[in-house]
Amino acid sequence: MDPRLLLHSIVGVNFLLFLWEFFLTYRQKAKHDSTPKRPREVESIISEGDFVKARSYSIDHLSFSMIRMLIECGIMIAMLYGGYYSYLWSLSELTAYPIAAFLILHYLIAFIIDLPLSLYENFVIEDSHGFNKYTISFYMFDAVKKLILTTVITIPLGWGAVWLMENGGDLFFIYLWLFISVVILGMMTIYPAYIAPLFDQYSPLPDGQLKTAIEELAAKLHYPLTKIYVVDGSTRSGHSNAYMYGFWKNKRIVLYDTLLSGEEKEKVYAALGKEEPMHEDGRSKEDEKGMGVEEVVAVVAHELGHWALSHTTRQLVTAELNILLALFCFSFFHNNENLAAAFGFNGGAPPLLSLLVIMQYMMVVYNEASSLFTVFITRRMEFEADEYAAKLGFAPKLSTALIKLSKDNLTLPVNDDLYSLCRHTHPPVTERVETLKKFM
Ligand SMILES: [Zn+2]
């Protein structure tokens, strides 16, 4: 195909995907716009006051997402028609290390373009709904740290990938896949132990009722728990969460401090050396947030369900197969000179660039399909983990925990069906609570 026509087609397909994404978000926003009053079926889940707050947060957030999508789509079209990739590569080739130079410039440009949007999102939208806990300087420090870290990690990966593409022959995609797999497993080990602590403070959960209850549950289920950490998520954001990680016999559970309440929270704040934010009249600002001990344990039971049902392993295997398939498809295109010319490279694209642009722009339909598949699988796993916790007798507490979590995170329990189907990895709280009722 003629390179010019090829470029139009690539831009066209990417534009269609933008329209699809925009359409989904628009539907969700329209649903929220048209639901000013709390529907009867969610009365047991959310109070009228919280409904108003959650709705306004959601509408602001979705409106901003749509603006962001428009801007990003405009930038994408400008980059593709403007020959961004070939221009940046020709600049990088002037240096002794073109791959490193390209990645540094590319990440830096993406960072600068994204910065005003991220600042607005955090300091205007999140802030006006009480979630932002950053100061501007702390935010910038974090963002620059993230940029440097990503660049430093990606450069050796880029070198490795290019070497394999140049020396791996016809089966290079298999070697590349093995290389990526080793990197993923390595990152899964290194990230929680060495990288996450660069950003957040982790502290062992202090002794007490909560720790004992979690340890008893883990022992009962033969979960090889070695440590329970609390992370100071509240330094950055008021959103809350819990997760587990670790290989084989060395598993950890991490709780966000924002999940906790009362005495447990005070102990954790003391351990982290933090002060509780106070209202002027001396009341704690976070008194109304967080869960009781039994509810946190119910959340942990759900997380352990993911482990007992091998969800993590299943997800990892699916991701691995997905990468192999994507690289296999890539192997058909990477030497195509017309395609390279469409992106402004005459006489073939350098391996790093063919990997970047083909994966990003040529495989968009494949990527969207695989993400829909992932959403579908993840949502099923959430129901399975809920069921696991429910069978252990946690249905009532998990149910109230989910309701509190949804309230604390200002999640609106009203959704457009199509949006929810395509985007919610976690089923809406209404569906989860309804399913849990079967076990009560
Ligand atoms: Zn889950």
- Give the overall pLDDT as a whole number: 88
Which structural category do the helix and sheet elements fall into?
Answer: mainly alpha
Would you identify the regions where 5 or more consecutive residues have pLDDT less than 50? Answer: none
Number of strands: 4
Element-by-element helix/strand order: HHHHHHEHEEEHHHHHHHH
Strand order of the largest sheet: 1-2-4-3
> Helical stretch count?
15
Largest sheet, strands/sense/barrel: 4 strands, mixed
Query: Cofactors and ligands present?
Result: zinc ion
- CATH-scheme architecture of the domain at 200-290: 2-Layer Sandwich
The N- and C-terminal alpha carbons lie at a distance of 62 Å
Q: State the helical fraction.
A: 55-70%
- By CATH reckoning, the class of the domain at 200-290 would read Alpha Beta
Shape: globular
Pfam families: Peptidase_M48, Peptidase_M48_N
Binding site for Zn(2+): 302, 306, 382
Subcellular location: Endoplasmic reticulum membrane
Domain Peptidase M48: 205-438
Keywords for this entry:
single chain, 440 residues, mainly alpha, Zincin-like, four-stranded mixed sheet, 15 helices, binds zinc ion, CAXX_Prtase_1, zinc
Describe the overall structure.
There is one protein chain. The chain is mainly α. It has a 4-stranded mixed sheet with strand order 1-2-4-3, with helices on both faces. Helix content is 70%, strand content 5%. β3 and β4 form a beta hairpin. It has a domain at 200-290: 2-Layer Sandwich (Zincin-like), CATH 3.30.2010.10. The chain has helices spanning 3-33, 48-81, 84-92, 98-128, 136-167, 172-199, 209-220, 262-272, 293-308, 311-333, 337-342, 351-362, 364-408, 417-423, 429-437, and strands spanning 202-204, 225-231, 242-245, 251-256. It binds zinc ion.
